[in-house]
């Protein structure tokens, strides 16, 4: 892996030297089917022709390629010796001319890790399905390339595939003489090129738009998935959201979609949520729902569809120069996903999900020791891989929401329109965007950017309320704090809401919108108002901050949280209480108590499911160990109570059923789960479909109530790719030393599992009820991770390093062991050290939470 790691300095040197005119890429993937002979990897032929110019004739550079073998390299008609110029990841190119043509004939390897050209053998129908995934730098696993975002070029692909297959790429394609040939693309970056091939189920539609000047745009639409998922594929809803999104972006961007067709492929064993390849967006196939799911799942899918669509402009049309400015595409797509979701689709409460779920991801990332500014310092590709994180996505999107409040929506969108027209098919840096926003808003964007984009950390905003003798507000101030490690106090545009009880409801009776800056800001607009029972700083979620409460407000929430009528305000209060729990300022038992008391009244299904996840996390990581058994019992009892009380057949009932399964801890709980599986027990209206069956089987397996034979029988019932992943997870969850040893060996000592099965095995391996059983693997983890990082691809290594950290061995001894490893490996790759340090910090935070919980018990 180190030899594959391109640095920023190398990329800048190469970009200053070269301009790329075009690629012709020819792939032969007929080897994907049939038996595989030999001990080496299964390979395919890749022939690449690159036409490029050199600003300094006679200079040297390199092309990127990761391949088992290269049979021929020709530069400007000269045959080069592959053994001399190819080192496994780079091809040395010397004595360049002003105009050059490079031809590389290689054998590239199919992937099982979701990087490069991934090959999936479907256990259900025996068919092979292929797709590519490249971000940030894995197109070099499929063809020779200059693998950096600022060396854009047009691409022409041709693919030889089995006769019965269909092949898709970025451009429109057709098959002639046994070869699929695709239209040349616009100039795009290497990482967003794409090929999908196989016997996929394919559905078509079209989008039409007539603009004010009379011009007409027609976009062919397609959606595809594995044949086994076709009965579950609701392509009509995918197309509905797609058309709504295209209308929304055309209305607001004033730049027609520039990439021809718009296919969307739902593919197996995908590492990401989705990828914005122009003309051929790829998604993880879990967005096709095999069983009943809540509206939160449909909303999440719609959000991802719109996020990727926003990338057609932010990222594909205009691309960051280097990964330092990754936020120029991901933050904007994350913001635009929510913005368009609310503005164009049936999911009009999308900002609630954004406040409750996306920002929780950002708050966690921004408090890790690895936190970084939204505009990050990305030294190399390993740094880039790790910076697809909560800061780049969700904090950046939150900052953009603050920016809209700061400059106004019209100025923001006009800035975007000028940005697209000014930089179409080019590459940009931070200053390019700030300059157009300064033009349209008339504001100084430099100071705003320094505070919000170029510093790390999250501020806390706390209200202070003073009352006069008549019981009215004499002064209301907002105190802003920052951690010592990141002391920046930022300008915040916030709404402040005052709430009181009226007829059993907690409602807002006064509001103001104001600027908060510095350590203490007096809010004069609310002076004279009646005394509030709750002060909600950052009402309506305009800024990015941790909300704190004065004591009176906190007491009100303890007694009346469920009475808040506004769903966004309620979600913001829940998020603030969770942050207090993570910061060891609210005992975990108190948070769980609030969930048990008020979650049953939560109307927003996405918020409810987030509360379930937070309550489970509080129990596993933040509750004092002596109190865990009590917490387990209370959560299971509370979940069962709400399950039985939920409306029959409702999505709330389904959410409580899943939560009950995850919280089950007593013989009676497991007996009920078993009865629901075999039909001897019933909850009125609850349909136990195949996905819910697996959700019930995992806790049964983890507690010894479902053995290998039971799981094999269930796989026979659901002999699909999804069923196999579920079975693998359940098998690894069984409470047996031999089972854990086998799972560990499969993950650490061999590389035979695909990325999806690695993920499933890790999930099953880590069971909170099996802390003692997992204890021996803490030492083994620290002995193995350096080797894993050096031997595996970065995605595989990340999965194992993050997934197997002994977080369940939550004692100071594990922190010490982590410190010892870090001290002994100070020269380890920074990306590896970052992952280990983040895990250390999560564990340390959990121990502080446990201490807070223990103090509350003692008190």
Mean pLDDT: 96
Shape: globular
Main sheet summary: 8 strands, mixed
DSSP strand tally = 28
Unreliable stretches covering 5 or more consecutive residues: none
What structural class do you assign from the helix and strand content? alpha+beta
Quote the distance from N terminus to C terminus.
52 Å
Instruction: Count helical runs.
Output: 28
Give the percentage of residues in beta strands.
15-25%
Helix content: 40-55%
Strand order of the largest sheet: 5-4-7-2-1-10-13-12
Q: In angstroms, what is the radius of gyration?
A: 28 Å
Describe the structure.
By secondary structure, the chain is of the alpha+beta class. The protein is built from 28 helices and 28 strands. It has an 8-stranded mixed sheet with strand order 5-4-7-2-1-10-13-12. The model has no long low-confidence stretch (mean pLDDT 96).
Describe the secondary-structure layout.
Blueprint: H1 8-17, E1 18-28, E2 43-54, E3 61-64, E4 69-75, E5 78-80, H2 82-85, E6 90-93, E7 99-109, E8 116-121, E9 128-133, E10 155-160, E11 166-169, E12 173-176, E13 179-182, E14 195-198, E15 201-210, E16 216-225, H3 235-253, E17 262-267, E18 274-275, E19 280-284, H4 295-311, E20 319-320, H5 327-344, H6 350-365, H7 381-386, H8 391-407, H9 409-423, E21 427-428, H10 430-441, H11 445-452, E22 460-467, E23 473-481, E24 492-502, E25 505-516, E26 520-522, E27 534-539, E28 546-547, H12 551-560, H13 567-582, H14 588-598, H15 605-622, H16 628-645, H17 651-663, H18 667-678, H19 690-702, H20 708-717, H21 721-733, H22 737-749, H23 755-765, H24 771-774, H25 777-791, H26 794-803, H27 812-824, H28 830-858
Helix pairs in contact: 3-4, 3-5, 4-5, 5-8, 6-8, 6-13, 8-9, 9-10, 13-15, 14-15, 15-16, 15-17, 16-17, 17-19, 18-19, 19-21, 20-21, 21-23, 22-23, 23-26, 25-26, 27-28
């Amino acid at each position: 892996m180190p030899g594959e790691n391109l640095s920023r300095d190398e990329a800048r040197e190469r970009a200053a030297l070269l301009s790329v005119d075009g690629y012709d890429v020819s792939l032969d993937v007929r080897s994907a089917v049939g038996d595989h002979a030999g001990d080496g990897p299964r390979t395919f032929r890749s022939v690449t022709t690159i036409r490029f110019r050199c600003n300094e004739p006679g200079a040297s550079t390199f092309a990127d390629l990761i391949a088992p073998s290269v049979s021929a390299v020709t530069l400007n008609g000269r045959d080069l010796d592959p053994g001399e110029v190819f080192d496994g990841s780079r091809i040395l190119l010397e004595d360049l001319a002003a105009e050059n043509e490079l031809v590389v004939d290689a054998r590239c390897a199919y992937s099982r890790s979701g990087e490069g050209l991934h090959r999936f053998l479907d256990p259900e129908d025996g068919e092979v399905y292929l797709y590519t995934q490249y971000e940030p730098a894995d197109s070099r696993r499929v063809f020779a390339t200059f693998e950096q975002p600022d060396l854009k070029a047009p691409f022409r692909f041709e693919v030889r595939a089995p006769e019965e297959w269909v092949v898709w790429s970025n451009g429109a394609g057709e098959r002639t003489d046994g070869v699929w040939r695709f239209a040349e693309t616009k100039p795009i970056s290497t990482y967003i090129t794409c090929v999908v091939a196989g016997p996929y189920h394919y559905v078509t539609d079209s989008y039409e738009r007539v603009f004010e000047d009379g011009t007409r745009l027609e976009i062919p639409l397609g959606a595809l998935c594995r044949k086994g998922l076709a009965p579950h594929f609701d392509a009509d809803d995918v197309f509905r959201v797609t058309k709504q999104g295209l209308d929304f972006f055309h209305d607001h961007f004033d730049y027609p979609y520039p990439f021809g067709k718009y296919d969307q492929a739902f593919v197996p064993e995908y590492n990401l949520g989705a990828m914005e390849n122009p003309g051929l967006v790829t998604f993880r196939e879990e967005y096709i729902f095999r069983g009943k799911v809540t509206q939160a799942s449909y909303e999440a899918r719609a959000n991802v569809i719109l996020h990727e669509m926003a990338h057609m402009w932010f990222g594909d049309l205009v691309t960051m120069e280097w990964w330092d400015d990754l936020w120029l595409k991901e933050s904007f797509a994350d913001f635009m996903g929510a913005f368009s979701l609310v503005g164009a689709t049936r999911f009009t409460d999308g900002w609630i999900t954004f406040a409750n779920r996306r920002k929780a991801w950002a708050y966690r990332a921004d408090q890790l020791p690895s936190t970084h500014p939204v505009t990050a310092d990305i030294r190399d590709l390993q740094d880039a891989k790790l910076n697809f994180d909560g800061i780049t996505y969700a904090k950046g999107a939150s900052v953009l929401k603050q920016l809209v409040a700061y400059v106004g929506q019209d100025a923001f969108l006009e800035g975007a329109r000028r940005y697209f027209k000014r930089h179409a098919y080019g590459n940009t840096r931070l200053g390019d965007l700030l300059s157009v926003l300064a033009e349209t808003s008339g504001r100084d964007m430099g100071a705003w950017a320094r505070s919000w984009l170029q510093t790390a950390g999250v501020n806390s905003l706390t209200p202070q309320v003073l009352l006069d003798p008549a019981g009215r507000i004499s002064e209301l101030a907002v105190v802003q704090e920052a951690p010592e490690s990141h002391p920046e106090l930022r300008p915040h545009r916030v709404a402040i809401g005052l709430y009181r009880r009226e007829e059993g409801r907690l409602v807002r009776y006064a509001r103001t919108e104001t600027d908060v800056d510095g350590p203490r800001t007096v809010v004069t607009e609310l002076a004279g108002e009646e005394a509030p029972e709750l002060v909600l700083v950052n009402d309506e979620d305009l800024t990015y901050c941790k909300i704190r409460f004065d004591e009176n407000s906190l007491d009100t929430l303890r007694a009346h949280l469920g009475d808040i009528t506004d769903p966004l305000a309620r979600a913001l209060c829940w998020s603030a209480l969770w942050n207090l729990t993570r910061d060891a300022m609210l005992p975990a038992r108190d948070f769980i108590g609030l969930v048990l008391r008020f979650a049953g009244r939560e109307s927003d299904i996405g918020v409810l499911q987030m509360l379930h996840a937070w309550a489970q996390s509080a129990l596993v990581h933040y509750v004092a160990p002596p109190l865990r058994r009590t917490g387990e019992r209370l959560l299971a009892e509370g979940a069962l109570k709400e399950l039985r009380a939920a409306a029959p057949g409702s999505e709330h009932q389904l959410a409580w059923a899943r939560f009950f399964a995850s919280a089950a801890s007593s013989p009676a709980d497991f007996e009920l789960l078993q009865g629901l599986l075999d039909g001897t027990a019933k909850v009125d209206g609850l349909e136990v479909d195949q996905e819910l069956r697996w959700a019930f089987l995992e806790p049964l397996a983890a507690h010894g109530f479902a053995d290998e034979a039971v799981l094999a029988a269930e796989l026979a019932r659901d002999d699909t790719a999804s069923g196999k992943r579920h079975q693998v997870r359940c098998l690894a969850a069984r409470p047996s030393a031999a089972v854990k040893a086998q799972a560990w060996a499969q993950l650490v000592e061999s590389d035979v599992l695909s990325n999806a099965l690695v993920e499933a095995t890790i999930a099953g391996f880590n069971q909170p009820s099996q802390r003692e059983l997992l204890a021996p693997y803490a030492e083994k983890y620290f002995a193995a991770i350096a080797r894993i990082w050096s031997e595996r691809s970065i995605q595989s290594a990340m999965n194992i390093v993050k997934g197997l950290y002994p977080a369940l061995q939550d004692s100071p001894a594990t922190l010490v062991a982590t410190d010892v490893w870090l001290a002994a490996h100070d020269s380890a790759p920074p990306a590896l050290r970052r992952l280990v340090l983040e895990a250390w910090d999560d564990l340390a935070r959990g121990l502080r939470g446990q201490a807070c919980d223990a103090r509350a018990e003692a008190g």
